[in-house]
Write a structure and sequence with these properties.
The protein is of the alpha/beta class. The protein has 14 helices and 16 strands.
């Protein structure tokens, strides 16, 4: 079986949660032929072929970047040429160039659309993009989502719900192994409590809410670390300065090893997202694998199903600064509660979010498609 994945970016040029899912899919299907087709970083003038962690990656030449969308005619040509012998083509939505490839019939094989999120950021473009999306969903042989809530709360997906299958994401074996070792060696920490955020510094992550909530906290025996880069980095640094926040660190982009070290060193993770553009957040299960509680938000997506309120952490209303400050205050002050939530988090990850569980579900869907 040959599986080809389509999206706009991939490691090491750029990544994030979707790139991590693409990597996990390839790791689940090591006995298959895997290829990934994405756009080349704009600083390069030519398309390239390379191999990233044993997976063939075709990086297409990018002409321009419009509204965070790499525009590439070569992408369309390469989809047509390189999927000729594909059995399964996975389009990681949203990326309009892939929708154009579907519109023009430039792919071969069964079309699987992995619906990562709605496209609510650019609302004024919905009348233009919506017909293209509906055509893609109509052509799709199967639509994958990470949570039932992503179907229930999407007006776009509801008409196609019979095509949908739920496959939650997984945490890599490295996180599981190192997480278990960390939990076994864990001991009561003394000194400052470390609060961690990991993610792209973009609008829907709610980092401005996080900084304002941190400033509101009465408990000062803690520090906030924001891991990740993005277009809002300078604005957020300016906001932290205007709030006179001293115990805040912006690390920028870090390596995977440094990211793991930051998770090991933290006491709990905060995911303050304000939009259902955050559909799952793989970073939740990565932190949970290390026995770290998670504070997330009650979004109409899969986010609050991953880390469950009063079980593996705390769930607050999106954008509610006061409520977020109170939740962080509680975890900073109550070490026993952190341990309780952390123990539950480890159990949940090993039950629901391992690569083996994801692989079983993927193969079941793909084999059924090929039989049809």
């Amino acid at each position: 079986m040959k599986v080809t994945q389509l999206f706009k970016i991939y490691w090491p040029d750029n990544g994030g949660g979707i790139a991590k899912v693409m990597e996990n899919i390839a790791e689940c299907l090591t006995d298959c032929t895997n290829e990934i087709i994405v756009c080349q970083d704009s600083r390069y003038k030519k398309g390239t072929n390379d191999n990233y962690k044993g997976v063939a990656v075709r990086r297409c030449r990018q002409i321009a970047d419009v509204l965070s969308t790499p525009f590439s005619l070569q992408f369309l040509v390469d989809v047509k040429k390189r999927t000729k012998d594909s059995d399964i083509v996975i389009y990681h939505f949203p990326y309009p160039m892939a929708d154009l490839a579907v519109l023009f019939g430039m792919y071969s094989g069964k079309l699987v659309v992995w619906w990562h999120c709605d496209f609510e950021k650019y609302k004024k473009w919905i009348p233009v993009y919506d017909p293209l999306v509906k055509h893609t969903l109509k052509k799709a042989d199967r639509i994958l989502v990470s949570s039932k809530r992503n179907i229930k709360n999407s007006k776009v997906l509801l008409p196609y719900r019979k095509k949908c299958s739920v496959i939650p994401f997984c945490v890599s074996k490295e996180y599981l192994d190192r997480g278990m070792a960390h939990v076994s060696d864990a001991h009561v920490k003394k000194g400052q409590v470390s609060i961690l955020f990991i993610g792209r510094l973009v609008w829907y992550k709610g980092c401005d809410v996080l900084l304002r909530a941190f400033a509101m906290m009465k408990q000062k025996n803690c520090r906030l670390v924001l891991v990740g880069g993005g277009p809002l980095e300078e604005k957020l640094k300016a906001l932290a300065a205007s709030l006179n926040l001293e115990n805040v660190e912006f690390t920028g982009m870090v390596s995977e090893e440094e990211k793991i070290r930051r998770i090991e060193a933290c006491d709990f993770l905060v995911l303050p997202s304000v939009s259902k553009a955050e559909a799952f957040a793989v970073v939740q299960i990565e932190a949970m694998a290390f026995g770290k509680p998670v504070i997330n938000t009650a979004l109409p997506s899969g986010v609050p199903c991953v880390s469950v309120d009063k079980v593996t952490g705390t769930t607050v209303m999106p954008g509610n600064i006061r409520e977020l400050a109170k939740a962080m205050e509680e975890l900073v002050e109550d070490e026993k509660l952190r341990r309780k939530y952390g123990a539950n988090a480890v159990k949940k990850v090993h039950k629901e979010y391992t690569r083996k569980v994801m692989e079983i579900r993927l193969r079941e869907v793909f084999l059924k498609l090929l039989e049809e």
